Amino acid sequence: MTELPQNPCDVLEAIARRHSVREFRPDPVSEQVLLQLLEAARQAPSAMNLQPWEFVVVRRPETKARLAAATAGRNAQVVQTAGASVVCLASLRQADALADRIEGQIRAGQAPPDREAMVRRLREDQAYRQLLVLPNTYTAVGFLLLAATRLGLATLWMTGFDGEKVKEAVGAPAQDSLFAGVVAVGYPAEGWQQPARTRRPLEEIYSFERFGEK
Fold first, then answer.
1. Is residue 5 assigned to a domain?
2. Are 78 and 40 within 8 A, CB to CB?
3. Which end is more exposed in the chain, N or C (fewer Cβ atoms within 10 Å of the end residue's Cβ)?
4. Contact at 8 Å (CB) between 158 and 72?
5. How many domains does the chain have?
């Protein structure tokens, strides 16, 4: 098993170091390390403490093959080569659980009755439900990526999959979860050269107080 570096970086350095690796060597990633990544994802913030994320770690060759069948091209090679892949899902059941909590608060007099409108949206408005669970799950994915970088691991976040096939491959509930990507985790292939990172200039992306003002 490949040893992790002895000088892990801090979070700002991890942000600067993180990049997408598209060629991995097949060294396994230990369960202990994978659990560290998932614990980091678990600590992500979420609206109303929704915590809608769920993760399925894929390591066995037969599961990797099923996952690869849900995509094409380089992504298929990546998931079969990397030490592990993490299927990221956004749980609609957590929107229902939030509706249950709010209803309980209303009955107990801890929330105003006008919050019943939110309960209805949480239960019935599918666009609202998706808009609520997906962005929060993406935040948790970002935490996972940074934790992996801090521990010296390479990652690639991929969304170019057939989400329904991915859910079938890992036995996830088709109706209660939304596909939020696959993160390959492992060690870069020997000789892998990361292309130069391109980012918009800082001064191009921000304003103070009013759009367009510096």
1. no
2. no
3. C
4. no
5. 1
The answer to whether residue 211 sits within a structural domain is: no
- Round to whole Å and give the CA distance between 187 and 191: 12
Query: pLDDT-based confidence at 3, cuts 50/70/90?
Result: very low
Burial, 87: exposed, middle or buried (Cβ in 10 Å; 0-12, 13-18, 19+)? buried
pLDDT at residue 9 in the model:
62
Among 127, 195, 185, smallest CA distance to 155 is for 185
Say if CB 163 and CB 79 are below 8 A apart. no
Measured in whole angstroms, how far is the alpha carbon of residue 16 from the centre of its chain? Answer: 19
Q: Residue 47's domain is classified under what CATH number?
A: 3.40.109.10
Q: 6-15, 48-57, 135-144, 184-193: lowest mean pLDDT where?
A: 6-15
Specify if 167 maps to a domain.
yes
Give a yes or no: residue 206 inside a domain. no
